[in-house]
Fold this sequence. Notes:
Blueprint: H1 4-11, H2 13-31, E1 36-41, E2 44-48, H3 56-77, H4 79-85, E3 91-93, H5 104-120, E4 126-128, H6 131-137
Parallel strand pairs: 3-4
Antiparallel strand pairs: 1-2
Amino acid sequence: MDNFKQINDRLGHVYGDQVIIRIGKLLRRMYGSASIIGRMGGDEFAIFAECIDVDRNEVIEAVNEQTTQVLEAFTTEFEHEREQCGVSLSAGVYVTEEAEVITYEEMYDKADKALYISKNNGKNQYTFYDEEEAGDKL
């Protein structure tokens, strides 16, 4: 979540805790029980979804659609917080290749690099990890 500190500063830490709970519920509702959703700390969440025997282009299309829907749902459900504190959502996405052997830490690192590209490009957006783009910018 972008600018989450403003919620704690302006509306209080108890209110901020409730916002974290609400964002977790929003993500669970949007991604369902088949995905693993975890709070990584502070205002950051990670989502892992396994897509077996699905074409990579179909996965990317589905991620585009779902992430756009999450950003739209956040805009509606957190209207008060957006107006009062300027919060928004940014995301980084990493999609592995079927034959790729990669650890959780490597996946998380790549998604995190993509996240910071989103934040550096103005926030309130998502970015797919790209090796060339991530290389020198972070």
